[in-house]
Design goal:
The chain is mainly alpha-helical. 79% of the residues lie in helices and 0% in strands. The chain has a domain of 73 residues: F1F0 ATP synthase subunit C (F1FO ATP Synthase, Up-down Bundle). It is built from three helices and no strands. Helix 2 runs antiparallel to helix 3.
């Protein structure tokens, strides 16, 4: 599958997910615009979705490359496996950092007065 097809599919899913938000009448904030709480929750939600999706794509690509490398050179399987596990841990830690920031935005409300 080409990168263009994947990008087009991701954009279609994003547009389909955001469209119902415009159909509902949201309560307005005191100033007439979007409140900081709503903006922080939306930002955290989108950040989590993007981090989880791209982290999963990166992990899939890493595993596929490692499996191909082990198939080409089975004697180097131990070294490849170690590098693979280290890479997967680093990819997953980035997603966990985004989760931590999203939880801070959800529950601590850092922009509240």
């Amino acid at each position: 599958m080409s990168k263009r097809a994947v990008l087009t599919g991701m954009m279609m899913v994003l547009v389909a997910a955001v469209t119902p938000a415009y159909a509902q009448g949201a309560p307005m904030a005191a100033g007439g615009g979007m409140s900081w709480q709503v903006a922080s929750i939306l930002t955290a939600g989108f950040a989590l979705a993007i981090a989880a999706g791209l982290g999963a794509l990166g992990q899939g690509r890493a595993i596929a490359s490692a499996a191909e490398a082990i198939a080409r050179n089975p004697s180097a399987a131990g070294e490849i496996r170690g590098a693979l596990i280290l890479g997967l841990v680093l990819i997953e830690s980035l997603s966990i950092y985004v989760l931590l920031i999203a939880l801070i935005l959800f529950f601590l409300k850092p922009f509240a007065a």
